[in-house]
Amino acid sequence: MGFFNDIVDAFLGPPDWPESSRKQSEAFQVQAVRDYDNNDGNFKIQIKGALSVSYASNLECAINFFDKSSDDPILSLYEQTTEDDTRVFLHSVDLGIVKENQYFPDWVDLTSFVKEIMLPPRSGSKVIEVRAYLYSSDNPISFEGGYIDSKDKCISYAINTFTTKFEDKGYRDQSEHRDLARVATVPIAMAMAMADGSLDKSEGLVIKKWIANTLDTYISEDKQNEMKKQLNEALDSSYKAFLRLPKNFKVSENIDSTIDAFNLVASNTDKFIALELCLDVLAADGFADETELNLVKELSTKLDLDYDEVQKMKDKTLISIDAKLSSSDSTSDEALIGLDMNLNKEDSLAFIKKEFRKWNGRLNSLQARNERDNAQRMLDALARLKKKHGS
Q1: Model pTM score
Q2: CA–CA separation, 376 vs 69, rounded Å?
Q3: Beta strand 103-114 with 57-67: parallel, antiparallel or unpaired?
């Protein structure tokens, strides 16, 4: 399933019914109204008027929604109310056998929905079109991206509007923010690569591979080219910016503004993707330098990520490094294990014992030689820490 930036404009559009038929008092009508009988924010879909069948037929009524200002379809977060091949909202109700010239003089409840399953293109207060399509079960309508394959299959069509407010990001907001987050991920990864003072070739290749994989997620060639330019510019400019920094300058301080901007647009998923890339960069040269390990810790804090999840990701990286865990004896055991230096003696020992149990349990289950060696190095570091903090 593609996202709708590339496909919405290609569809047929709603049926062009004669305006005069809509003005007739007996014409088929639809409306969405708040369900005040419940306190859960539900809306009711109601229909009234003539169902326009000349003989008894098994009818169905399909409902979907559009943002009136942009004419973009509303998506659904609930799989049971989507089209077969897209996430566009679609809900069909079987009306059963409808008699010839059946007519509803008053509004009749058709179905209900919860606003929280709706995903609009943009957040904010929106005028939403509710569209209703009557068709025979023997000649069903096919929908794609909110639009029908043939208006000839549609017995009656009705449209109405209602206004509601969406607090969360819409799917076009999410798409744009995701792009911005991806561009901001590159200088964050470059900071990890330059944390030890230089860019190793293997680290640069990891970032370039991530860029290539990211570009593969875009369907449109124009969008690919646009993002390729932005991502490559971010790679080049961030590398040059780090080269201009004076020696002994703390790399993490140079990306504080980037992280602030990143946090404004990034989802939790975007943040974990950025951290995963940083860990891949850390492992690329086969070393876990103390400055890199400290930067991982700083990033997890600045990105407001769950500590336990970050530890799991870091452990997975450290255990799979092909060379050795530390590039020199200067890497402290505290940095290697992730021990918070602000903990008191009692809490430090509790953390060390917890980590020792974890790594000791893993040692017995690992098969690869380098993974067992890395786990043993972690245990050795923990033994030294236990002696140091227990004395």
Answers
A1: 0.67
A2: 61
A3: unpaired
